[in-house]
Amino acid sequence: MLRLLSRAPLWLLHPLGAALGWCAFLLSGTYRRRFRAHAAGAGYAFGAVAAAVGHAGRMVAELPRLWFGRPPRWSWDDGGAIARAYAAGRGILFLTPHLGGFELSPQALAADYGPAHGPMTVLYRPARQPWLARLMASARLRPHMETVPTTLAGVRGLVRALRRGEAVGLLPDQVPPDGLGLWSPFFGRPAYTMTLAARLAQQTGAAVLLAWTERLPHGRGFVIHVEERAAPLPDALDAAVDALNADMERLIRRCPSQYLWGYARYKQPRRMEAPA
Fold first, then answer.
1. How far is it, in rounded angstroms, from Cα 62 to Cα 59?
2. SS3 assignment, position 100
3. CB count in 10 Å sphere of residue 154
4. What is the distance between the alpha carbons of residues 83 and 122, in angstroms, rounded to a whole number?
5. 181-193 pLDDT, tens per residue?
6. pTM over 0.70
7. Alpha helices, DSSP H, located in the chain
């Protein structure tokens, strides 16, 4: 079924996905309450972000195409930021939240910049089900793109890639395992946040690029927006983590209708008590 769906055009997949998103929203009280609570915590009435329900479904529906099919159309809105980062030769830390078509951006960077600058390395968390883990590993095997798991060996792979001047991709708003994060404000509420992104930037001196992938209407493709940070990250780890959370907030506010408000961002890991 996935192989069959991978051949479908986006103009067909996206309406099907939007219907799927609304079905999930209406049928799952837990998801519906979490979606509304997270949006309200960020200051949005449901009507202002209701389109995000459909976009969550579109994200699921487009995965077969992104994983197994012919790449969709994309364009860059970066003002030369990527070229300047590669020219600096210090490696690139490519950070994006769960916003828009975030699965596409590392593929696009690998396709357009990999031949000249080396592969794009992406950190991923293997699925618990063996069949799904194998599927995800094979799906993300693209030219000039490498994946490493969320293990110590995987982190070492990221460091080596950055020191070679290559690009590394992370989702810094992904909830880390116990002991691998700090409590940091996210839309005014404590969220357990990974320290890995800040540590990589501090230890390697890599250029930090902030990105989000806008899903265009009617299946017309995507626009990948990329910008440089206005200032270097603070030296203190907790301050650097706070700064990156603020960066993610700012990107999400650019297009709140495409953010995954139903993502369990405030999940509390075991043995990690949230501050008051």
1. 5
2. strand
3. 17
4. 19
5. 999 999 999 999 9
6. yes
7. 2-5, 10-27, 29-41, 46-49, 51-68, 81-88, 104-117, 130-139, 152-163, 196-204, 237-254
Identify the three-state secondary structure at position 20. helix
In the numeric block, which tokens belong to residue 139?
A: 């799906």
- Cα–Cα nearest to 103, from 200, 222, 20: 222
SS3 77: strand
Question: Tokens 């992370």 identify what position?
Answer: 170
Query: What SS3 class is residue 261?
Result: coil
What six digits make up the tokens of 102? 């975030």
State how beta strands 74-77 and 222-228 pair: parallel
Alpha helices in 144-235 (DSSP H): 152-163, 196-204
Q: Residue 14: CA atoms inside 13 Å, Cβ hemisphere, count?
A: 18
pLDDT in tens, 105-164: 999 999 999 999 999 999 877 777 777 777 776 666 788 998 888 888 889 999 999 999
